[in-house]
Design goal:
mainly alpha, 12 strands, Neutral zinc metallopeptidase, 17 helices, 496 residues, membrane, single chain, plasmid
Length: 496
């Protein structure tokens, strides 16, 4: 990272406050308190999730949920298959109501449900393929069936993401059936388009559950929805290399792609999902990096950089070039040398001191936050940009101070996330600075930032490092900055 023209960042997990298990990392940004305040009008209200009140609460199957109505072929009649069958009953119930008002054609429930055990060598052949060692859930249009692995796929999803996420998983698969009914896909439709539409259809169903309209499931808009979004992030595509270029159209999407599609359905409804096309996805992605490139030496970008004082100085220099502030903040890695009225808790990775106009960093904590995670241990992705996006957000508080806007409100938190998104988009291109050092966004970096917005929320926090309740809203604000052509758009969107 310290050498000119070869410095990059990229891909892997959450925040310094995150516990080892994924379930512990998603306790609604436990490292930052929610900001009290008044509900605001506008598309991104700090205490709302696409118009619904942002709150934690029960998520999962209702105690009084009706028993499954249909039969499941191959079932062992256990709890996992009951959860799956109840989920599909609920999704069918949703589409019976929503389909006529949203899509062309007519709705007919999926004909056949099949359960299998991926650990059993005698597991059946379905849709022309063996299911042994197939840890999956899928819709087969040829046979009009939805099948699932009761041994690994469904129980692991339930364990780490919750029962509502299981319902979300099947809502995605049912979404593929909806595509067939509405004639939205053809043989030459890119896989990415079909998968994004299915993610979006799942989001529209999840909205129905969150509104309290499901007789079988509940979903809180805070920690419950956070877990569902974390599940979407976990099943993202791997970072694309030149040998995997086909994933640009034939993959399932990056973490940002998948979360954005779920949010589209949740916010705009099933009808909006039908508008997803390759052109729409391309416009949404813009010029953001999607493929790791070769260095001047010919080697592939590593996508990671070590978090050091030199790295952070380069980051601050680049941000200064992007924004050209009249009073650029200084950087300090030793809090004892900064005279500030108050300091956050010792484990805080970075904060902004207005009186000293200084971004203060706890380097040890920040380095832990920027260390790639081992996702095989069921923790959310984390990497260098999980840390660097947090430092960027603290720098942007200094710019807001110069604009004379309040720094200690829930609106500040969302404005900061928006500005950070704008800054990250600018860093997707080479920014020449006096030192000659480089720090450039690469494929996978935005996934790390999005995961951090779920697990610690610091990119979407105010000067007191207080964030807003819902990860959904934090990510939406960040994405609005990514799509903005100017930083002023963030100030106009999130008025004091």
């Amino acid at each position: 990272m310290s050498t000119p023209a070869s410095s990059v960042w990229a891909r892997r997990r959450s925040g310094a406050c995150a516990a080892a298990a994924l379930a512990a990392t998603l306790t609604a940004a436990s490292c930052a308190a929610s900001v009290p305040g008044i509900l605001l009008s506008g598309p991104d209200q700090p205490f709302r999730v696409a118009g619904l009140v942002a709150e934690d609460g029960a998520s999962g199957m209702r105690d009084n949920a009706p028993a499954p109505s249909g039969s499941v072929r191959g079932s062992d009649n256990g709890q996992v298959d009951r959860l799956a069958a109840v989920s599909i009953d609920d999704i069918t119930h949703y589409w019976q109501q929503a389909y006529p008002h949203s899509l062309q054609g007519s709705f007919a429930p999926v004909d056949t449900l099949v359960s299998y055990d991926s650990t059993d060598a005698a597991s059946p052949v379905l849709c022309g393929e063996t299911t042994y060692d197939e840890v999956n859930a899928f819709f087969c249009p040829r046979d009009d069936l939805i099948a699932w692995d009761r041994a690994v796929m469904v129980p692991v999803t339930e364990k780490y993401f919750g029962q509502a996420a299981v319902a979300g998983l099947f809502a995605h698969e049912y979404g593929h059936a909806i595509q067939e009914m509405a004639d939205l896909v053809e043989r030459d439709t890119p896989t990415l388009v079909a998968e994004q539409q299915a993610d979006c259809f799942a989001g529209s169903y999840l909205r129905w559950v969150a509104e309290g309209r499901s007789p079988r499931f509940t979903l809180s808009t805070g920690d419950g929805l956070n877990h569902v979004l974390a599940g979407a992030i976990t099943i993202r595509d791997p970072v694309i290399t030149p040998r995997r270029m086909r994933l640009l159209e034939d993959g399932h999407g990056t973490a940002l792609d998948r979360v954005s599609a779920v949010q589209k359905g949740f916010s705009a409804g099933a009808g909006a999902c039908a508008t997803i096309s390759m052109d729409e996805i391309t416009r949404r992605r813009g010029d953001l990096p999607l493929v790791l490139q070769a260095e001047s030496s010919g080697t592939l970008q590593s996508g990671q950089v070590t978090i050091t004082e030199e790295t952070l100085n380069t980051l601050v220099e680049i941000l200064g070039k992007i924004f050209s502030p009249d009073q650029p903040p200084t950087l300090a890695v030793d809090a004892s040398r900064v005279s500030c009225a108050s300091h956050p808790a010792p484990e805080t990775p970075a904060w902004y001191c207005p009186s000293a106009n200084t971004v203060v960093v706890n380097l040890d904590v920040l380095q832990k936050m920027g260390t790639p995670s081992d996702e095989s241990k069921h923790v959310l992705l984390q990497g260098d940009n999980t840390a660097l996006s947090v430092v960027t957000s603290r720098y942007l508080l200094a710019l807001q101070r110069q604009r004379g806007v309040p720094l200690d409100s829930a609106t500040t938190a969302l404005r900061t996330a928006c500005l950070t998104g704008f800054a990250q988009r600018a860093m997707a291109k080479r920014v020449d600075v006096a030192s000659g050092k480089q720090l450039q966004l690469t494929a996978g970096d935005l996934d790390e930032a999005v995961a951090g917005l779920l697990t610690n929320g610091l990119v979407a926090s105010d000067v007191n490092n207080d964030t807003v309740p819902a990860g959904f809203t934090r990510i939406a604000a960040f994405r609005s900055g990514l799509l903005s052509s100017t930083a002023d758009s963030c100030y106009q969107r999130y008025l004091p």
